[in-house]
Design goal:
The protein is mainly β. The chain contains two helices and nine strands. The model has no long low-confidence stretch (mean pLDDT 83).
Length: 132
């Protein structure tokens, strides 16, 4: 059974949703099947520093919703962030070529994939509907 964080009773049934994403240089491409269980704006200091902004916009998905293109893993690198407000760690996955931040993984939520929203190819209509 998925962690309660991944079950949002207010999310629409969009199991047929397919969203593509990529890093800036295109070395990493992926597909997410289904809607995020929740979307959040994180204002912790680590996310601020990681994003270079006042917050980081994230969508929470189950790991099983992610399909990476075959050549993507060669460019993926992980930084284990130990400065999190939660006193735990967060693995921040990024592209080693262009530096785009892609996903976060928190060991507390083993089934969760936290996707940085900026790497999603949502199009104009999709961005109007993305709400934290």
């Amino acid at each position: 059974m998925a962690h309660p964080l991944l079950s949002n009773p207010f999310s629409k049934d969009t199991s047929n949703n397919i969203v593509n994403g990529s890093c800036l240089c295109g070395a990493i491409t992926f597909t997410l099947t289904g809607a995020p269980s929740t979307t959040v704006l994180c204002h912790c200091l680590s996310c601020k520093k990681s994003s270079g902004s006042a917050f980081q916009a994230n969508g929470f998905y189950e790991n099983s919703q992610l399909t990476l293109s075959p050549d993507s893993t060669a460019a993926m690198k992980t930084y284990t962030d130990k400065s999190c407000d939660s006193s735990g760690t967060v693995d921040r996955v990024f592209c080693s070529t262009c530096g785009s931040r892609l996903f976060n993984r928190n060991p507390k939520y083993k089934d969760a994939l936290i996707v940085n929203s900026g790497v999603l190819d949502l199009g104009d209509e999709g961005w109007r509907e993305w709400k934290p």
